Amino acid sequence: MAEETCNSVGGHAQVGSLVQAGTVGQLHQHVYSAAVQPPVPYQIPPETAHFEGRTAEQARVLLATGARTGPGTPTVVLLNGLAGIGKTELGFRIARRLGDGHEDGVLYVDLDDLRRDGVVEIADALGDLLRSLGVGPEWLERSLAGRTRQYWTQTRDKHLVVVVDNARYGAEVVPLLPTSAASVVIVTSHGQLYDLERVLTLEVALEPLATEDATRLLRRIVGAPRTSAEPEAVAELARRCAGLPAALQVAGRWAVRYRHRSLSRLVTELTAELNEKGLPKVEAVWDAAHAGLEPTAARLYRLLPQHPARSVTLPAASALLGEGPQQAEEALEELESAGLLEHRPEGWRMHDLLRGHANRCARRTDPDGTEAAAGRRRLVRWYRRQAHRADELAAGSRMTFAEPVPPLPYAPDVDFAAFTAFTSTDSPDTGLTDTGLTDTGPTDKARALRWMESERLALYGCVRIAYEDGLDGDAWALCEPLWTHFLDHPHYGDVVDAFTRGVAAAVREGSSVPAIVRMRCQLARPLWEQEQYEQAAAELRQALGGAEALGDSEPERRLRASVAEFRGKLLSVQGDWAAAAEYFEAARRQHLAIENAYGVMLQTYLLGRAAAGTGEHGRAVDLLGEAHAMAREQNRARMTARTGFELGRALRRVGRAAEAVPLYRAALASAEQRGSAFDQVRVLEALADLAEETGGSAEAAAYRESARVLRQRSGGATDQSS
Question: Where are the domains of the chain?
């Protein structure tokens, strides 16, 4: 990826003496205070306006939370029942009541958000939970086993409430259980989870609301005067909703909409609808609500299931509708007023039961799917444009091959400068986001990355939509900006799925060899990071073959160099530094030929690391010294620090430790300025090793303590070394 354009720091290193003991305290204190504590996570929505019943169920759960089943075993409560019966809202309500006594946070994960082809990506679920606990992307383990151990460490001795929504199997839940007996896990499921029984503290099977509770809920929504005047009609309407809160909310709002009609008349109309169509009770309630909508709101209701995420923002709804933001906003407000949508901080959300109903309405009004397909196409194009804009802010100018999407008349662009949402997986210590944080708050670059993370499910979902709809150019073009998102937020399940489709789309389209080559390279990296080396190598072999068909234009020659670099990096992570060096050298020749100074500097740096890997430490000093000089000349602050640090390591290996000190200190200053705890720890550990080599045990201890504190606050492994 393109080098970040972070602020330049001073301290272009010159040879000097070892850091003195008198400066260790200042340095230690400065580093200690550099780690920013993330806020305590609280990831459930505010209290709903209307909630009735479930008193006995709440009492049972709250009583169970006082019981502990053994050391290190959390209290696990399962809420199961029919769709629409109110499991999630009851789980939220209990979590709110428990929140004050669980000071380490309330976490939430919806397994359906992470489900592809019926299977949950457990590693991604753990990744989301770990980021919520303050673990930065640089510290996040790559494998499922590594993330599992990391989650165990992070949740030990914590007082947490974890809500796991929409579980289908106990095997999906067990890896997400905290290790602390002081924690509580609330699981929701449509049915019993037999394979969860060994860790289950309490199972609560939810029945439909009793008529009394259902009637009371309707009275609260509709209002006392009308319901008091017609109690029989209220009771009948409650019965028509079968005790399902999701239906009662819609029925109540439906009655409010027709406030000048008697409730008896409304119930009579509903009964006639049931008898005429032979519909289930609840279906008629939703049909009546849909029939009462204005045409634009009704069309948006039918289109919303085409949105791949469970929440939709106003601009995305505008793209789906295709009639402009004002019309979309009015339609969303009408749907919320009708009880068909719920507004949350992240956007508007539709209940799964209503999503199914909206799909059935769409099939009746749009049997050939023309309206739905047009909505999906508009949505994909809009997300593609916004992702490209966000990528430009986050990564600057870099190698891409898709043409930008022009402004779309039917939907506004996202104002990244005004985007303030702090997503559940944000952390103060992240790779790209670090360089976008200032004393006054996040820059546009950081906000763009946060927008991509907040819209992650929609963005990756749009790749699937585009591929399945045959929009091949859109599918692979949308993958290009998702590369930047992946580097900052490694959701492996999402990215492998998306780039696999991106490769297939580019191959199927067949019009862009560079796109095929680039997609294969970008798919290879998440594969090798999960130690799927053979699959990664297979992609790169095909990329190398495709690179032979590239032309001699500068972008194509740069891509040819990039393919060689990817192949070299795969070999280097497998420990074959000698073979890797051959590919880095080939890439450097390409960059020299097209006079790409940054590419030459980067390949020289990689060659220096390869030389160190093969034990050619003198050559490593020469190459890394050359790369360091080039990085300074190009004013590449982060690469100046990175090359300087590696040069310092090489100098130590050839017995020139004193020359490494100013390089390490400059690298440390850069890491502090960027807010990267990961880089700070690496340098502090190296400084500690250096101090020990020269007999400075007190200095070494101070450096290691600073590193330990930073690592602990960032969620890193305790055995991090330089």
Answer: 1-43+596-722, 55-205, 211-291, 295-418
